[in-house]
Write a structure and sequence with these properties.
The complex is a heterotrimer. By secondary structure, chain B is mostly helical. Chain B has helices at about 20-40, 45-70, 75-110. In chain C, helix 4 packs antiparallel against helix 5 (about 100-115). Classes of the chains: A mainly alpha, B mainly alpha, C mainly alpha.
């Protein structure tokens, strides 16, 4: 069968928009996943629930800085996409690298924050409230870390991808993912940190 | 049925423009600063702070979705994307509001 | 006994031994790797039966000459199977707190997934010729057995 196949390099892109929609649907289901984690967090954080308060260990200025790191990395990623459509490959890699650094700073700050919290006694096994905090924010952090690995891979693969449509489609996936993470973070910092600090 | 390769696939996103991204960045920064600011100055009542940070979050969500994700209803695929995000919103609302309602009832009844 | 002795002679070659009503009986048995040469339009539950009744007037079940086109198919890959095997090792290992096999399983999963993303040669087109030959062979069988 294979020997009778048409020339393999003749890639038609009739399924590209459906493929991206498929990824969009995955993002929607990921939203629902985070929604469940938010619901759990809200339920376990009713005022008066037992366990140490996040407020005592919280430094809002750190969270503000983290938020700006993630927002900036979202913006620089959009710049990378812009450059991709103008086929300036080196610029794309440059902006991707900057997104990686900004996202990496976010993760670094978050990990040190978690370590600090655990040291102070606000550990994930100490109360339902703390568990829900670490699960929600930790899951978001895991998503961001996977995104960072993906960005590295993208930087490596972009020069190898001969077909510009494949590059655009893959960058679209990553773009959707990275944007979605920042959107989830808006709700995380509002509901977890800002509400927790009051 | 041979496909014209020159046409760009329709991802349902709007045209990518630097101006819109910068506008989005500035709006998001301002909204973030407003939200953090109102909590950090500690001058306002609980309800005032609630309203401000939740509205800032919702507005920032819309700004991010429209300016960064470039969600729009111009193309067919764009309309499908919007419909799916609205559906996801319905599901999320059910889950979150439902959980809160039921658990607060359980809390009340079992305390 | 005689059924198994004569199984080659008695074998059904049309893919539709019981005069089926639904679409799965409209393809040959075994089905071609692309399944349907043209995506069927389904407007009723027993679509194949509706099709047969429409063509009964012609005297036999005989699909009209379809406009055959190249069919987009994915290439075979062991990646999915390998990821599943590593996932199995990972899942079993972490349940029993066997950290080393767990890490091995996890790294295997992730490495295979990443390696897979480096390959862009993942699809091919079944040529119009092949599709036409397969379909006409099937049609011939159906006619000669009608």
């Amino acid at each position: 069968m294979h020997s009778e196949a048409i020339a393999v390099h003749e890639h038609h892109h009739e399924t590209d928009s459906v493929d991206v929609f498929g990824f969009w649907l995955y993002i929607m289901t990921d939203c629902i996943l985070f929604g469940c984690l938010f619901a759990t967090f809200l339920v376990l954080n009713f005022p008066g629930s037992p366990g140490p308060e996040l407020k005592t260990y919280l430094k809002l200025s750190d969270v503000l800085l983290e938020t700006f790191f993630l927002l900036a990395s979202n913006f620089t990623f959009c710049l990378a996409i812009l450059n991709l459509y103008q086929t300036k490959l080196f610029r794309v890699q440059l902006w991707l690298a900057i997104s990686f650094l900004l996202g990496g700073s976010f993760i670094f700050m978050e990990v040190t924050e978690f370590a600090h919290l655990a040291n102070e006694g606000f550990r994930w096994d100490v109360s339902g409230k703390a568990s829900s905090f670490f699960t929600l924010v930790g899951t978001h952090g895991l998503h961001v870390s996977c995104g960072l690995v993906w960005i590295l891979l993208m930087i490596m693969q972009l020069p190898l991808l001969k077909d510009v449509y494949v590059a655009r489609r893959r960058m679209t996936y990553l773009g959707l993912f990275w944007n979605f993470l920042d959107i989830v973070w808006i709700f995380v910092f509002t509901i977890v940190y800002l509400m927790g600090a009051m | 049925m041979h496909h014209h390769q020159a046409s760009h696939p329709d991802y349902g996103t709007g045209k990518k423009k630097l101006g819109i991204y910068i506008f989005g960045l500035i709006c998001c920064s301002i909204l973030t600063l407003i939200a953090f600011g109102i909590v950090m100055v500690n001058q306002f009542s609980r309800w005032e702070v609630f309203t401000v940070i939740y509205s800032a979050a919702c507005i920032q969500f819309l700004v991010q979705v429209i300016c960064f994700l470039r969600l729009n209803t111009q193309t067919e695929q764009g309309k499908i994307n919007v419909m799916s995000i609205l559906f996801t919103g319905v599901i999320l609302l059910s889950i979150i509001v439902g959980s809160l309602w039921i658990m607060s009832n359980v809390n009340y009844n079992l305390m | 006994m005689s059924a198994s002795k004569n199984r080659h002679a008695l074998r059904d070659r049309t893919g539709d031994p019981w005069n089926g009503r639904t679409l799965e009986w409209s393809v040959s048995s075994p089905a071609p790797l692309y399944n349907f040469a043209e995506l069927p339009t389904v407007s009723t539950r027993d679509q194949f039966w509706a099709y047969k009744e429409a063509h009964l007037a012609e005297g036999h079940v005989h699909p009209k000459e379809l406009h055959y086109q190249p069919i987009h198919m994915p290439k075979n890959t062991p990646a999915g199977f390998i990821i599943a095997m590593f996932a199995g090792i990972f899942g079993f290992a972490i349940v029993w707190h066997m950290w080393i096999p767990g890490v091995v399983g996890f790294i295997g999963m992730v490495a295979t997934m990443i390696a897979r993303t480096f390959s862009t040669d993942t699809d091919y087109y079944v040529s119009e010729e092949t599709v036409r030959k397969t379909e006409l062979a099937h049609i011939k069988e159906m006619i000669s057995n009608a």
